[in-house]
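Quick question, first post here. What does this chain look like in 3D?
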Amino acid sequence: MSDEFDVIVIGAGPAGENVAQRAVRGGLSAAVVEERLAGGECSYWACIPSKALLRPVELAADVSRVPGLEVGPIDTRAVLARRDEAVSRYDDAGQVGWIESVPATFVRGRGRLDGPRRVVVDTPDGERVLTARHAVVLATGSVASVPPVPGLREAEPWTSHEVTAASSVPDRLAVIGGGVVGCEMAQAMHGLGARQTTMLVRGGGLLERMEPFAGELLAESFAAAGIDVRPHTSAERVERPEPGGKVTVHLPEGPPIEADEVLVATGRRPATKGLGLESVGLPADRPVEVDDSLRATGVDGGWLYAVGDVNGRNLLTHMGKYQARACGDVIAARARGEADDLPGMRAVADGFGPPQVVFTDPQICSVGRTESAAREAGFRVRAVEYDLADVSGAYLLGDGYRGRAKAVVDEDRKVLLGVTFAGPGTAELLHSATVAVTGEVPLERLWHAVPSFPTVSEVWLRLLEAYGL
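> Answer (accepted):
Ran it through. Tokens below.
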């Protein structure tokens, strides 16, 4: 069977879905190819289930800070049941229906490139060949990286995929890694009943790509909760003699760690294996390099695009969706022979530094550059900080509130280069920071954006006052 479409999208995660929607809105026909579940990693094994697991732990912490309220034990079985509801019990019928309502054609199977504008799909019913009149878009996302620690892969470790889909909480959990996934899932599993949670962090602290105070506050929270964080520690060897049995993690120094499960959270790599990149002259083991219109560089004819994690620009769901919207608009404009350099048609926000939230307690969120990154980029920088506990709105959220805010200012242009918040509930502050950073709002104008009292957002006024306005 041979089928021709204007646009073929390989990957039906949030990025792939958005490309198809924007291309169809622009007057093109589209097919979306997906091997697993429509909705992608985010919907079933990442963003959605992880936040469903974290929310009860976060809420229990919030309640514990308010006098007059008592925190009862978390019903782990009920939490896992709600997680199952959040992921539609791993049934993608709703997502497939949405794709078809776009309308786009959904093709179940593993898709791979087979030369220019040609996609071969291995479906349950056999091979199906699709051809594209205008564009093929790669939106295959990323997969968890497992470091080459002797015995680790053979021990069948958990990754983000397994931990978010867990049917029960292990009594003892070892976590390798101190980044976002490691921190979120260590707290989720510990809060839901893991008696012993140990984090092995190769670097000097948690969340090292963010401002130092963020990881420090989180480490203090983890210590108070009983999570054992071990900086400058790596797994040397892992043993699991029996499938599903006890795991032993050997360390360079000291006694080994005994655990029921080991979670590997050491990063992700683009899902390019078996994608047929060699057939169009691209390396198969690297992210697909793209320009700001998300068109792959180095491919004759300019018909290949890549959005989301597979291009390596920003491994965040919301940034993949942002890229996808720009990509779909550009493809449609080029197909009509119109200009494709209009405002909003290119993924320029990638360069500002993406907004990101770590849904732990305390929440950690940031947008733009850290102070060190801004200095390394050559900006003349001034940074100001403020203790969130000194904001009236934060005090009202509960006793013992701890948090901090930091703004990084470009001294030459008097605009914000980056903002970081750490504290309970601070995720809702992030979009205002994102608008200020990406919009390059002058500080003197930002001063007239008056925050409501008594809210935590009053920290904006305090940061500007600390700067001298």
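The chain has three domains: 2-39+92-143+270-349, 146-266, 362-467.
The first strand starts at residue 2 and ends at 10.
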